[in-house]
Amino acid sequence: MDLLPAGKAILIVALCGRALAQSARRAGFAPIVLDRFADLDTRAVAACALKIPPGRTGPLASQALLRAARTLAPPPIPLLVGGGLEGRLAVLAALARGRELLGNPPEIVARAVDPFALQDLCRALAVPFPETRADLPPERSGWLIKRRGAGGGWHVRPAETVARLHPRDYVQKRVPGRPVSVLLLGDGSRSRALLASEQWNTGTPPHFKGVLAPAPLPPGQVQNLARAAAAVGTALALRGLASADFLLADDGQFHLLEINPRPGGSLEAAERALGVNLVQLHCAGCRGRLPPTPPEPEAGFAGTAIVRADRDLVVPEGFDWPEWAGDRTPPGARVRKGQPLATVRAQAAEADVVRALLVERERLLLAQLEPTPVRRRREARMEGVGP
Ligand SMILES: Nc1ncnc2c1ncn2[C@@H]1O[C@H](COP(=O)(O)OP(=O)(O)O)[C@@H](O)[C@H]1O
Ligand SMILES: [Mg+2]
Fold first, then answer.
1. Residue closest by Cα to atom 5 of ligand 1
2. Fewer CB atoms near the end CB (10 Å): N or C, the chain?
């Protein structure tokens, strides 16, 4: 921490700021990171990293976040925002006051994340978007309830399972397909598609698990998604990196589901697949500059997958993290079953090899964190349930 500050200070605020912080450091910045985790590898590249507790209505408690930003990264240090603030426009505005916002201003975010505004825009641009309404239909089957400003898939529920709508809920027709996300780069007037990535979900409700970039799809399908994403991004006047999440059916039909008007979960895989520095491109885009020729994916595939604890656990002091593990939970922090523990990454010439490596590395990591029999006995004694 003390050895690193050389570079231009930048404030990074996100649910998980690690991938952004690493990219920012490689771009020559000295990141000050405020996120939920302050993981070991975030701290390793940050001039300063602080864990912000969850809030009542969002992933980051607003007062703690604003206080930390004021003291650790006062204006005019520029602000780069990742995922987690879409539903918190007043917080975004307060954070950005007096400094350059490397991202989209609150009024643009508000329009991008409003499903009804997006539905209207998609209709005007002839981009397929699932039928969306504000109230529950009389016949619930085939409809989903989703929450404005929420993310990660946790909020998506079948309409049959919901008794009453929350004020931020909306109702959307279920459409077929697998998740594919298009990474966009905008300069405030034009948006360009950089790359499509395959995404996958897990669990109930299905939530975000991993990314493979580039998505192994026929070029024609990628072009269709890229064209639709760029048209919507341009109409929204997005700045910097953003993503357009689609569902793509086997026959090539697709629907746009949402726009994430900031860099998100595909950043690390996309950066590896493209072989460029995405924070650098993001900052240039936010300052009105797009690269003359967009980066092309290099040969091969890159993937990342979130590993959640398979039981309540604590990472032991001195744990030897494999080099393919990121978002490394610091020792001593309690990780409850189902909470994020780390991210595994893989890169290979074949998409299937990347997918298999991610599964294998998740298994290996969880196995390495199994308590040894000696430690288990000692823990049991300390809890007063052992011999
Ligand atoms: N209209 C829909 N039809 C079918 N599945 C959907 C629909 N909307 C969301 N989903 C499922 O929920 C996941 C997350 O949806 P998304 O709109 O991208 O919200 P989030 O902000 O949580 O990422 C999608 O990948 C998909 O699996
Ligand atoms: Mg999404």
1. 174
2. C
